[in-house]
Write a structure and sequence with these properties.
The complex is a heterodimer of chains A (788) and B (140). Chain A is built from 33 helices and 2 strands. Chain A has 788 residues and is an all-alpha fold. In chain A, strand 1 and strand 2 form a beta hairpin. The model of chain A has no long low-confidence stretch (mean pLDDT 84). With 140 residues, chain B is mostly helical. The radius of gyration of chain B is 18 Å and the shape is globular. Classes of the chains: A mainly alpha (788), B mainly alpha (140). At the A-B interface, helix 28, helix 31 and helix 32 of A face helix 2, helix 4 and helix 5 of B.
Chain lengths: 788, 140
């Protein structure tokens, strides 16, 4: 087994050990043990970088369900490695942060770390899987782990609401993804992603459905418009979880999926506009909504949504194969976003932890009290806003380059609609700038009011600051030495996303910190200037949020939809599940008439061959008339007694029919059984309660008449057709030799006890069970015992 | 005051024997003539019912001290056991066989395992029939 497998399974093994460590080593914070896992994985991934940078890939496979072609194959290329590094690296920092954030005494730490480790393992499984079924398995495992983590404080109603919402939405997407993956495997006849990528599927009739389904999966997971609504509610999770899952890793699973399947679907107009369009709308909507939030974490949640939209938008533009800068920018921003968003979440967690609130209306003036936190917040926010000297500046410039280049393309209607992209991107950047400023200025500047805080405010302990500090240093390092990651990580990842284009030839993508007075620089300047003006006048225009969002909230739609669906379902159920047996019988009979009668009509199967019939004797006619008369009497009579006697008449006439048709055994049995039945009817009749006795005629209802006529006609037609369609001779000639075969001259009896005695055996069993049933129903009246 | 059922009871005493004899005839003749375990069992039941009608349940219970639930169970058991018996002779379940034997009084007679099976059927029918009638009338 390859060492990589061990690396991928270590989180799950550790998840098994955590409860033991928590119970038997209570003196040490469980997080310290957990910390070893992501650090180890991270070091192993680092060790893989040189090999991947040379353009090699690592492939390995162990059989899981070989008979179905499902193997746990892993596949490490540049794209997977970037995600692997992010997951393990940020994971290590988050675990370190959580050691100081989560109290050893008050919190159920074993739950926390088990969920976290399951999530980490599942996430690593998603990015390294080559088999799409395995990928889907890990994909759902991330959803479940995220569900558990969001509802970590399950005593709170909001946590449970958020967890349920995220589960409903991501599982919806996950199932769509499964359908899309199955379509892919149907088209290519393989489960391996590498083999799917090499197949050319364009023009296949399942190509578009597969694309849509996979995109639904990716968009729900990555909180794209309009599936973004679960992310702000997921902020009820503990802050380390928000930092890890809902900014750096899980929400990027959708991005991974889009990037991974770009070689399959990219280069088509549908993919370009779906991905780019969704991305840019999400970018705009997320940044616009972030400004109105009062909760710091909600603001960061919307900011994450919008940044994810930015990356998705860039991947869409890059899929055209003409704007390779866009893919490069997407990957670069992917890394940058993980650094600064992780940092910001941790900083917000510190503010929450040290002041007891995350509400920006209560916060303010913390600059001098929490100087380190303030510095970290500035680094993170300015990077997010796209200002130098932070890495966000570089990726934002690349983003502008991407959209500008895309708008000049002469395809996909970009010559007419292309201009929309840079404009929307620019507007979104302004909003990004505004909320970044709000994040810093409203929290840390202004006057410090002691009365607003419930606890004494002071700087966070060093341990809590290590992780965000580390990320802040990375933010700066990435700005000053961007080409180190570009050459070692981004180039191999680009060749994974755009395999056809870059075979062997690495394209030059040197990031220049300063590249002259280009359009991008002026756009950034414009963002800063307009953003500052808008921030200064925030109070004057923030009223638009009062009007717009209430009407344009997808939360409203989701909540109403959920309530509506429940109501509709219960209404429908109440409509037809009436509890009245008569109604259910009506459904059964109508169904029978529709299906049997319908197939008789549609297949044109009715036949009638009178020539095959025997002659009718006068006895039969007379007896038939008696039966009809008795049946009509039973239906129309107003007294029960008449009906019982009428039924008896029918039974005895049937016995005479048996005589005429030469069935003496049947006639004998029918006579006795009919007598017993009539006697039992009389008994029941005698015991009917006085009250509610229905002596008037059976309530005549047209519907019943129609349905019963329908059933009668259909059965008659079927019987006539069947009789006219005898396809082969009867096998009864065999039984005529019963004296030789069974030593019996009575064929009926020989069949009952010898040829087909098994049926008889079970029939007497049925009879006996019925007898015991009657006995126990009468002798064991349980309701009486309860009444005592 | 109890009505005088003397005619009914006297007639019953005679008729019951006729009915039961007829039932035994139906049962035994089943192999070659109309009849068999089922109808034989039903006729026995009707004969017993006549007894219950003419006399009261307690008197009949003293005369025929049988628990008919057990009769039904024994019937099912016999039917299944004859089926299992064929397994002993390495034949499929419920294989029936017959043969001709020279018995002292009857002369050459046909004996068939199917009659044993039919006996099970008859006992199950009698047991069930009487159990149902007794439980319902007992509750009334």
């Amino acid at each position: 087994m390859h060492l990589l497998y061990f690396t991928l399974l270590v989180p799950f093994i550790m998840a098994l050990l955590v409860p033991l460590l928590y119970k038997y080593v209570p003196r040490i914070h469980t997080g310290w043990f957990v910390l070893v896992v992501p650090i180890g994985i991270f070091l192993y991934m680092i060790e893989l970088i040189p090999m991947i940078a040379k353009g090699k890939i690592l492939v390995s496979s162990v059989p899981w369900i070989p008979s179905l072609g499902i193997n746990y194959s892993v596949y490490v290329d540049g794209l997977a490695l970037i995600f692997g590094l992010l997951i393990s690296g940020i994971g290590a920092l988050v675990v370190l942060y959580s050691v100081y954030y989560m109290s050893k005494k008050r919190e159920a730490l074993h739950n926390f770390y088990v969920y976290l480790l399951i999530f980490m393992g599942a996430m690593l499984g998603v990015v390294f899987s080559d088999n799409i079924i395995v990928l889907y398995m890990f994909w759902e495992l991330t959803s479940i782990a995220s569900f558990l983590l969001i509802a970590y404080w399950y005593q709170r109603k909001q946590s449970r609401y958020g967890a349920q919402k995220s589960l409903v939405i991501t599982i919806f997407g996950g199932l769509a993804l499964l359908a899309g993956l199955i379509l892919l495997s149907v088209m290519t006849n393989t489960y391996s992603i590498r083999e799917i990528i090499t197949a050319d599927l364009r023009g296949h009739q399942l190509f578009l459905p597969a694309m849509l389904l996979i995109l639904i999966g990716a968009f729900t997971k990555s909180a794209q418009f309009p599936f973004h609504i679960w992310l702000p509610d997921a902020m009820e999770a503990p802050t380390p979880i928000s930092a890890y899952l809902h900014s750096a890793t899980m929400v990027k699973a959708g991005i991974y999926l889009v990037a991974r399947f770009t070689p399959v679907f990219g280069g088509t107009i549908e993919w370009f506009w779906l991905v780019t369009g969704t991305g840019i709308i999400t970018l705009l909507w997320g940044s616009f909504s972030a400004v109105k939030q009062n909760d710091l974490k909600a603001m960061l949640a919307f900011s994450t949504i919008s940044q994810l939209g930015l990356i998705i938008c860039l991947l869409g533009i890059g899929s055209s194969l003409y704007v390779t800068t866009a893919v490069f920018a997407a990957l670069f921003h992917l890394i940058n976003h993980s650094t600064f968003k992780g940092c910001l979440f941790m900083v917000v967690g510190i503010v929450d932890h040290e002041t007891g609130t995350r509400d920006i209306r209560k916060l303010g003036g913390l600059m001098s009290l929490m100087p380190i936190t303030f510095t970290l917040m500035i680094i993170g926010s300015f990077s997010m806003a796209g200002l130098p000297p932070f890495n966000g500046f570089l990726s934002k410039e690349l983003f502008f380059t991407g959209v500008l280049e895309a708008s000049k393309l002469n395809m996909y209607y970009l010559d007419t609609w292309g201009i929309v992209l840079p404009i929307l991107a620019w507007i979104a950047s302004i909003f990004t700038f505004i909320y970044s400023m709000i994040l810093v200025l409203k929290t840390f500047t202004g006057k410090y009011k002691l009365s607003k805080y419930e606890i004494k405010v002071h700087e966070a302990p060093l341990g809590m600051l290590i992780s965000p500090m580390f990320l802040a240093i990375l933010i700066l390092l990435f700005f000053f030495f961007p080409n180190t990651i570009a050459n070692n990580l981004l180039q191999p990842a680009m060749s994974a996303i755009l395999p056809g284009l870059l075979d062997g030839v690495g394209i030059e993508n040197n990031i220049k910190i300063w590249h002259g007075w280009t359009t991008e620089v002026f756009m950034t300047l414009g963002v800063v200037v307009v953003g500052m003006l808008l921030y200064a006048s925030l109070n004057k225009w923030s009223w638009i949020y009062e009007y717009l969002p209430a009407k344009m909230s997808f939360n409203y739609l989701y909540d109403r939809g959920l309530v509506g669906m429940e109501k509709l379902a219960s209404q429908i159920t109440k409509k037809y599940m009436t509890g009245i047996v008569r109604d259910y019988l009506l459904y059964i009979f109508i169904f029978f008439v529709l299906v049997v009668g319908g197939s008789l009509v549609l297949l044109n199967n009715f036949t009638y061959h009178p020539a095959d019939n025997g002659s009718v004797s006068a006895y039969e006619v007379v007896l038939m008339l008696v039966i009809i008369g008795a049946a009509v009497l039973v239906m129309l009579t107003k007294s029960r007694l008449t009906a019982v006697i009428g039924l008896g008449v029918i039974g005895f006439v049937v016995a005479i029919f048996f005589v005429i048709f030469r069935a003496p055994d049947l006639a004998l049995t029918q006579l006795v059984v009919e007598t017993v039945t009539v006697a039992l009817f009389m008994l029941c009749f005698y015991h009917l309660p006085e009250l509610g006795k229905e002596t008037e005629g059976a309530g005549f209802r047209t519907a019943n008449l129609i349905v019963s006529l329908g059933v009668g006609i259909v059965v008659t037609l079927v019987a006539i057709s069947a009789q006219s369609n005898a396809l082969f001779d009867s096998i009864s000639s065999f039984y005529e030799d019963s004296y030789q075969l069974a030593g019996a001259r009575n064929i009926v009896n020989a069949i009952l006890v010898d040829f087909r005695g098994f049926d008889t055996m079970l029939e007497i069993l049925v009879l006996t069970i019925a007898g015991f049933g009657v006995y126990s129903l009468i002798k064991l009246p349980l309701h009486r015992r309860n009444n005592r | 005051m109890k009505p005088n059922d003397v005619i009914l009871q006297t007639v019953t005493k005679v008729v019951t024997f006729i009915i039961l004899t007829f039932a035994v005839y139906l049962f035994l003749a089943g192999h070659h003539e109309p009849g068999g375990g089922f109808i034989g069992g039903l006729v026995i039941t009707s004969g017993l019912t006549l007894l219950y009608l003419a006399f009261d349940i307690e008197s009949v219970r003293q005369g025929v001290p049988v628990d008919f639930k057990i009769v039904a169970a024994v019937g099912v058991f016999i039917a299944v056991a004859t089926g299992m018996g064929s397994l002993l002779f390495d034949s499929p379940f419920l294989s029936q066989t017959y043969g001709y034997y020279n018995l002292p009084i009857f002369g050459e007679t046909e004996l068939a395992t199917a009659v044993l099976f039919d006996l099970g059927v008859a006992l199950a029918v009698v047991g069930t029939g009487v159990t149902i009638i007794l439980s319902i009338s007992g509750d009334a």
